[in-house]
Amino acid sequence: MTTMHNNSSTYSPLVYRITFTISSVACAFSLLVGILMATNLLTIRTASPLNLTELTQLQTSLKANPADEAIQNKIRDLDHVARSFYFGGMNSLRTGSFLLLGGVVVALITLRIATTLRRRTPNPREFPALPDPIDSAATTRWVTGGIATGLTVCALVLGLRLDETPRPTGIPELPQGGAKRLAEPSPANVLDPFEDEAVTNWPSFRGRTGSGVSVSTNLPIAWDGPSGRGILWKTPAPLPGLSSPVAWGNKVFLTGASADKREVYCYDIATGTLLWQMGVTVTSSVAKASPEVNQDTGYAASTPVTDGIFVYSIFANGDVAAIDHCSQTRWTTDLGLPINRYGYASSLALYKNLILIQFDNDPDKGGVSQVIALDTTTGKLAWTTPRPVADAWPSPILVETAQGAQLVTAANEWIIAYDPVKGTELWKVKVGGTDSASSPILAGGLVLASVAGDKIYAIRPDGHGDVTKTHVVWQSDTGISDVASPVSDGKLAFSVNTSGSLTCLEVATGKVVWDHSLEGEFYASPGLAGDKLYLVARSGHVFILKVGRQYEEIGKANLGEPSDGSPVFINGKILIRGIKNLFCINGYEK
Amino acid sequence: MTDLHNRRDFIRSLMRGAMLVILASLGSGVLLRKRCAQAGGGNLAGSCAGCPDLASCTDPAAAAFQPPPVQRTVWQLDPAKCIQCGRCATNCVLQLSAVKCVHRFEMCGYCKLCFGFFLPGAASLTSAAENQVCPTAAIKRKFIEEPYFEYVIDEPQCIGCGRCVKGCGAFGNGSLVLQVRHDRCVNCNDCSIARNCPADAYRRVPADQPYLFKPKAGNSSWKAIG
Amino acid sequence: MESHRMIRLICSILFLLSTLSADADNRFPKPQFESGYTAPIPTAPAARSPAIETLDVAVLLGALSLAAWLVLKKRSRRGVFLLTLFSLLYFGFFRKGCVCPVGSLQNMTLWLFDSHTALSLSIAAFFLLPLIFALLFGRVFCAAVCPLGTIQDLVIVSPKKVHPVLAQILGFIPYLYLGLAVLMAATGTAYVICRLDPFVAFFRFGGEFPMIVTGIVFLLIGTVIARPYCRFLCPYGVLLNWMSRLSKYHATVTPNECVKCRLCEPACPFDAIEFPQPNPTPETRNTGLRRLALMLVLLPVLIGVGGWSVSRLAPALARQNPKVKLAESLRLPPSPASTTPSLEITAFNGSGAKREDLERQAAIITAEFGIGSWILGGFLGAVLGCTLIGASIKRRQEIYEPDKGTCLSCARCYLACPQEHQRLGLIIPNAKP
């Protein structure tokens, strides 16, 4: 560097030519190495053993024929090639970077020497004239003004542009805890602003509202279980159960139990892979006797409930467990062996930080019916309210009224609503009948309850005390369902009984709009999504009707195995539990 | 003219003094300022954004624990948050990721059918390529005694994809975990994996306790141990 | 077939076992070995030792002092060049470039704004030492210590002059970059400077492909436009520029009195030498004063307009934050066609974190961006306003001397001055060449 001013005398064309040649060679070399390294890098990225599609395909075909040695050998060869290529490529990258560094250093040194040799002594007489300070200051001001204007315009245009791109506006007011799961009691049965969650999550029996209704409209109407057409996946449940699945995000939860084992399962909603299964063991229940159950209930008839963090499940022997979405058990508790003629079957409900359990027992055998609330964080008893009813099988639902949330329970003697926070009784309606299993629903601001062997009652949920005489809007002798619960879009209600007699009633008046006799027996509660009504027959056939003032069948699909499971609508798919398998249906175009 | 120059010089030295004071107070601030207890360090994607300062923090744990004000930190991934998406293998600035699978032998069940080693539905329990979960065959399986097998990670082969971790966590004891190995990690100021981690599992931890493992069963909380 | 059945049996046994235990992590208890097997102990390599970090700070301090001495006292370009090589090897290739003073700017910002961040003393030293040195001796850090600067300094082959208008426009980018980087760091969104560092990939022998390409492009440009990153991008350079303007001792072109021989005019590859001004075109004192008053009035206007217009971008900027982004994507109704949600959503749903908490955090961050974007816009407006005021104050430049703000103290101009030759005894006094 210090030589740069004495060089005009030492300038030698030969030295210049040599250095220039060397530097050109070094540049070319570096360029070559650089290109080779870049291609090497790209091939390593694409041919990494992590994403070899060929290998995955071979693995799948091997699964089909596990004993095929040809495929096995192919996999071994491919695996070997991929790995040696990957690690070999990395080694050559390392070598390449040193070569490149060397090339660049040589090129730089020679280039510098060459340019230094060519540099001439500066001659001030050839320099441009110095600029006028007034002019250059003016230029500076103008340029600054230009930058300011340009930036402002840029910011405004960008701001407008980005505002135009579709994005959710406004943050929805988030209520506390599980309150968002409640439906508005508006006449049209409009669902709350959490429609996105209503589509992706199905947190409890018969969905968020407990009424078997979904806002989804894009649900499949055609599938065929035996051939697998339109079935996204089916996965066997390790233990049997009549409970329905619940879903949150990409996870599906299910319970299964035998006389001596109780389990919760978690499936991947995309593939049906069993992500985990977790046994429910309550310490105090070691010596507990097995409950007496019959075929229509089994050991896992109650559907679990989830708040997005934990899955809460209850089993026929009165064991309750909270397990998080990654299979960690948070707490377990024992409610005591239910005294129930057919086996305990009510599903759980969730309100804020409380799990609400309709725990009805046979008073003739010394059982006490009660509604129990457990704290979701600890599993400790929050409150319990005894109730004057015999053992029953309906599930409780939560309804939101202008006066606040209510827990509505149905049984043979009384339909009773409780304050979910304190457990105090709000109102009750005297009913009759026997062996009711049908859960109440909220439809068009009314509580509809079908009591087996009695009537369907429509009750305004804003009374206090015994409101049998004051708040029953209508009652109907026609269209009583015994096992399945009714379902409604807010204007029309549908109920199906065991023998397949389907009745459509007007919610506001209780008038029968139409009735129709379906083929088969029905235990599963129907589901309603958009304008479609799904009825699952015990044979596994699913009738899909259009919701309307006329009977109109738009599809009949087959699961391929018997089922008593209510349909779960989630994210454009339907989940139904069959007698053996859990089905996820995405349907096919008819 | 000299007058003007003197005035300018005076203003300049005043401003220089002010700047020095600012820089010095920044320096002493680093030495003296108290930090929130939950801070593992410069957790860019921290979980308590917007939390009030330590002074007004109501968490009793925070009040009880006065952390050293100056902390050297390194990157680590929290296995409790990790979802084994596989991005650790591809997003590290190093060609071969600094994240590797670590086998915690004290938690291992030494299963004959290890789901960290075998693909689900493997045709036979041999280490043939078609049965292995690991894409680079970095897990070595060794018979110990019937029916127990030892699994050892061959670290230079491991690329940190986390497939074995997923298998072990789903069906086994979860003794395989992904960890940033500090003999490899260059401790980038802006960790390239951390900013691509979908689970927010990366955070800065104190450099003298650079690994995050789950303690043995019975203690549900996660903490950093050496 | 036989083996198949066996596997199935083992499978079912394993599942059975797994259901017995309530604890997911102890599905299989640790076996009692009869063969006397002992488990190997997995290694846990320690992180970089604190001693090395102390060494880093010591080397930084030493290099800065040496640079100051070489530039101001020894006036040796060769010494500066050798120190440049050393710094590149030590701070670049040995220390892998992280955490460099340029990036430490963000750590410092995050530390100031987020009480959860601990800042190690070495990072604070890396941020503060170059600034303190600049305050005393000018940008000696840029001259020979900064790894980003040195790698560019070495590729300068044939520097060309940048047109002053272009230089002024490009020279505004560092302010923009600094403002954005501070905003992003303060909100805990990202370390933009590190993410967009074009040279660190060379030091690590690996990095993201686009950044490697950007680095190569910068080095290629750097052969003709000297140190493009330092002059037209470096956000830390803005701070160094401010400090250096106030510097107590600063490099001068000539060791003696300037004789205005014009020989140093082409010597600076960074166009950082201020030339003496010829007599200006006459202008009445009143015009100048009126203009200055106008510019002074314009300053708050520019600050306001800048703040307002950048605040229009606040939502877009906030969306760069992963938390805000996640909250927003969770708020979007899932498209029916999509079979699987994004990994982020999956991870969030599986983590057990509450939507409410996330929404609250996202709302806080968005609000921070709202305020931050006003400040950023105001800052940019202030920079432009100050430039305008600066261009409206008459200043007499009498001699050739470095522009204290932009001069990188590289000592290249020393040997262009005949008086320096005289000082070194290369030419005899009064013997004109």
Question: What would you say this structure looks like, in words?
Answer:
The complex is a heterotrimer of chains A (590), B (226) and C (433). Chain A has 590 residues and is of the alpha+beta class. In chain A, 23% of the residues lie in helices and 28% in strands. Chain A is built from six helices and 34 strands. A five-stranded mixed sheet of chain A has the order 1-28-29-30-31, with no helix packed on it. In chain A, strands 15-16-17-18-22 form a five-stranded mixed sheet, with no helix packed on it. A four-stranded antiparallel sheet of chain A has the order 2-34-33-32. The longest helix of chain A has 50 residues, at 69-118. Residues 1-9 and 165-196 of chain A have low confidence and may be disordered. By secondary structure, chain B is an alpha+beta fold. In chain B, 24% of the residues lie in helices and 17% in strands. The longest helix of chain B is centred in the N-terminal third of the chain and has 31 residues, at 2-32. Chain B is elongated, with a radius of gyration of 25 Å. Chain B starts with a helix and ends with a strand. Chain C has 433 residues and is mainly alpha-helical. Chain C has helices spanning 2-20, 50-74, 77-94, 101-113, 121-137, 140-144, 147-153, 164-171, 173-186, 192-195, 200-204, 209-222, 228-232, 235-245, 285-311, 314-318, 322-331, 343-351, 355-390, 418-423; strands at 273-274, 401-402. Chain C has a two-stranded antiparallel ribbon with strand order 1-2. The longest helix of chain C is centred in the last third of the chain and has 36 residues, at 355-390. Residues 11-25 of chain C have low confidence and may be disordered. The chains are: A alpha+beta (590), B alpha+beta (226), C mainly alpha (433). Chains A and C meet through helix 2, helix 4, helix 5, helix 6 and strand 6 of A and helix 1, helix 3, helix 8, helix 15 and helix 18 of C.
